[in-house]
Amino acid sequence: MAESTQNMEAIFYRNGKETPEPVKAELSGTIPSWLQGTLLRNGPGLFSIGESSYNHWFDGMALIHSFTFKDGEVYYRSKFLRSGTYKKNTAANRIVVTEFGTLAYPEPSKNIFSKAFTYLINTIPDFTDNNIINIIRYGEDYYASSEINYINQINPSSLDTIGRSNYRDYIALNLATAHPHYDDEGNTYNMGTAIMALTGPKYVIFRVPSIASDKENKRPALRKVEHICSIPFHSTLYPSYFHSFGMTENYIIFVEQALKLDIIRLTTAYIKGVSWGKCLKYDKDDITLFHVINRRTGKVAGTKFYTDAFVMFHHINAYEEDGHVVFDLITYEDNSLYDMFYLKNMRQDAETFDKSSKVFSLPVCQRFVIPIDVDLKEVPSGTNLIKLEGTSAKAVFQNDGSVYCTSDTLHQGLELPGINYKYNGKKYRYFYGTKIKWSPPKNKIAKVDTITRTHIEWMEDECYPSEPVFVASPGAVDEDDGVILSSVISLNPKKTPFLLVLDAKTFKEIARASVNTTVHMDLHGLFIHQ
């Protein structure tokens, strides 16, 4: 098999192994003495069970790993999430639970009537609890999460799985994001989709107070969940897929995009042999709606703000300035990104993969601006309502009273964005992410200056860094005073994986912590201060 295809498979589809006990890393450089805590990371790490294999990278069993900083030393450990899905699959020694791109039948020898009964209990709510995307916090509890109705609580120190919670036991949701927001008081904001609610299908925004945990009585923080508001679907049978949302000091920004979930197809998917991933459809002729919600009152702005169709997974940040809401997104021309991560595409020969990868859409970082304090009664049609300097984004008033928005491009080719979270919801200057090039597979991490529109990079041959995580130094005054952490795996088997530590100002390496064990490619995570 050609080298570039081997690389793609080695990066993404190699079965991971647990390192259940802490392994002390070998250090080069110096870890800042103030850096005390744990970097928790989550992602798919097991892609074949027995003789069965998953079809898509997003299907793999969740493997959680951590880098703990203590007194200038670094310790690594990893454990598979002991979800119900993991237990069922390992007990059967094959895949028996359906995932995003892989359909599974618990008992393939069943007759059609038995399969029909199985279908009835495998419709919308309960495909899997394999939480592979992120680590999130509710109250003082930490959970492995994805975009389903289940989350699994974990011990952030030992990485043990404590137990599963179901959103639907506390609030009417079938799906929820793995990218919540946290305010300055420690409250958690999140949103999800209620497909089967008694009051009709809708998007739901909710809050979990910072004091919601009850460790003494082992009661989940979700029991204190507070409903903020509900928003009806733009298309009743085709709810928008969303991976994240934006939040400012006063508002929540929800992007209702043209990548949609076909509910009718989903409810019949199991009996027709169709995976969940095949129930997503992108309507390039539709529009993208921007909903602005007061996060304290739950009131949704009455003006229709919209733009052309695009696909979006990650918000970068959002803030308010002079009567405007500014929000930065990473967008794509279509949803071909999902297709790239099917194993059949990764296993193509180098020449075929190189050709096919050219059709995969690349990410573009875009800035949109919405005016929130403007009287539209006397505004002529065609007026640009944006009065901010330093942006070419527009919000043009239309004859029907709606506002058509166009964006300002900040950067191209960057994904998995992160910021100094102290600036979340506030005016900011810098963001960080991975620079993407599909073929041959090369990744860099970068720091983008939103004012100068310039960037600086870190890269190393044969290396593949993960999402960069910013950790601020104590008493920091400057926005970029701190370090960047990134878990790095290598295409060279002779080079051990390592945790990279960069000076966030200069993007120069100040330390690396190499671990003599297997480390897998991950998705998202967070840093927990000691």
TrEMBL record:
Biological processes, Gene Ontology terms: carotene catabolic process; retinal metabolic process
Keywords: Iron, Metal-binding
Cofactor(s) demanded: Fe(2+)
Cofactor note: Binds 1 Fe(2+) ion per subunit.
Top-level taxon of origin: Eukaryota
Pfam families, sorted: RPE65
Residues annotated for Fe cation binding in this entry: H179, H243, H314, H524
Gene Ontology molecular function terms on file: beta-carotene 15,15'-dioxygenase activity; carotenoid dioxygenase activity; metal ion binding
Keyword Isomerase: no
Family: Belongs to the carotenoid oxygenase family.
Protein name per the record: Beta-carotene oxygenase 1, like
Source species of the chain: Electrophorus electricus (Electric eel)
Gene transcribed to yield this protein: bco1l
